């Protein structure tokens, strides 16, 4: 069996970079012989990987879908964080894997032999649980209006929960399709493009749909996530803490160190020929659940205990509920209420059962992760 060829997009980013450094230092035996190529948009980024045992490929035309497709046809597995919100690019990469499969089948037909132990081309797509978010402030009856309310629910605004167990896979996809038909959302569009295209061309696809990710990354480029660092900066900048409404909506969270372990688990199964045993089209990656009021409160407590936030003697910085528009402005994203509602004020409750079935378990604590995020940002900002 030839060494599996793995392409990682977005290796300069938070998830892709952390995954790459993890794979190069701690991997199961099935990944020890794999070769890694990182896809880059500019030649200046190659210096970030000079000391690492990887091949760099710089796109000659970064926005060319034809170039992406042609490149993808050279690989067995693609891990795709870079184009998580780009349906066209994600589809092009999947089509490229389909081209690889067709070429392999032609070669096998011509030789009268089959490639023993060859990896079935597989794309591992990065995505997020906001694909399944409701809109409790701008459209509280959204799910009910789309016919998505669960039979056991009597309140159209109540929180829904999804699991990645086999029995819930169809409901996940049905929910995404109904929401997408109502409102296009680039991350969800890319997810569906990958899953649909993979089925059309006969390759495999696994979507890792993650919640809030916490903790500093370990890659050579970007080391900060999105949601918690934005909350940290907003609290520090304004000296106050805000949530939308009561802040009672719920999400889940996972530490970046735990998350790359799930990616490793998928990759290990794929390259060892167990792609069918990954467990489902969509995998959730979760370790803990929070309400937005709880999360913002923890950001406040961590910043205070570390000395980055100042409050009146004997008092805590107050977490105050405000309207969505005011919260969006406080966050520094004025005019982006639609995006902010999905990512900071919605319900997206998910449970990752598949990875736990492999024996994976999360170990990072949310409070510790928030503290480490505060320290990382403080060091970068010179606080």
UniProtKB/TrEMBL annotation:
Domain of life: Eukaryota
Gene Ontology annotations for the cellular component aspect, listed alphabetically: cytoplasm
GO MF term list: aldehyde dehydrogenase (NAD+) activity
InterPro entries on file: Epimerase_deHydtase, NAD(P)-bd_dom_sf, NAD(P)-dependent_oxidoreduct
The NAD-dependent epimerase/dehydratase domain, residue ranges: 187-271
Region (Disordered): 102-121
Name used for this protein in its record: NAD(P)-binding protein
């Amino acid at each position: 069996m030839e060494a599996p060829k793995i392409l990682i997009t977005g290796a300069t980013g938070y998830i892709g970079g952390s995954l790459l450094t993890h794979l190069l230092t701690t991997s199961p035996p099935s990944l020890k012989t794999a070769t890694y190529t990182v896809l880059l948009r500019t030649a200046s980024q190659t210096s970030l990987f000079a000391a690492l045992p990887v091949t760099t490929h710089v796109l000659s035309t970064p926005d060319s879908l034809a170039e992406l497709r042609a490149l993808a046809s050279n690989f067995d597995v693609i891990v795709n964080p870079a184009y998580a919100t780009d349906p066209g690019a994600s589809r092009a990469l999947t089509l490229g894997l389909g081209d690889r499969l067709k070429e392999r089948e032609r070669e096998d037909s011509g030789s009268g032999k089959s490639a023993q132990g060859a990896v079935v081309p597989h794309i591992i797509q990065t995505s997020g649980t906001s694909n399944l978010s409701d809109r409790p402030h701008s459209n509280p009856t959204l799910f009910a209006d789309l016919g998505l309310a669960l039979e056991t629910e009597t309140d159209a605004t109540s929180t829904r929960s999804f699991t990645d167990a086999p029995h819930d896979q169809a409901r996940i996809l049905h929910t995404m399709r109904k929401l997408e038909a109502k409102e296009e959302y680039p991350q969800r569009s890319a997810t569906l493009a990958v899953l649909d295209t993979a089925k059309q061309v006969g390759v495999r696809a696994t979507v890792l749909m993650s919640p809030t990710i916490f903790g500093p990354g370990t890659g050579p480029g970007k080391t900060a996530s999105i949601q918690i660092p934005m909350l940290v900066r907003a609290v520090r900048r304004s000296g106050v803490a805000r949530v939308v409404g009561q802040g009672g909506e719920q999400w889940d969270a996972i530490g970046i160190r735990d998350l790359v372990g799930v990616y490793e688990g998928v990759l290990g199964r794929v390259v060892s020929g167990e792609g069918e045993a990954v467990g489902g089209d969509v995998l959730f990656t979760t370790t803990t659940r929070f309400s937005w009021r709880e999360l913002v409160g923890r950001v406040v407590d961590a910043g205070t205990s570390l000395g980055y936030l100042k409050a009146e003697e004997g008092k805590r910085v107050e977490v105050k509920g405000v309207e969505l528009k005011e919260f969006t402005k406080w966050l520094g994203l004025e005019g982006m209420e639609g995006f902010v509602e999905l990512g900071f004020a919605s319900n997206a409750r998910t449970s990752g059962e598949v990875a736990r079935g492999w024996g994976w378990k999360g170990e990072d604590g949310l409070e510790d992760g928030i503290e480490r995020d505060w320290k990382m940002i403080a060091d970068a900002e010179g606080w």
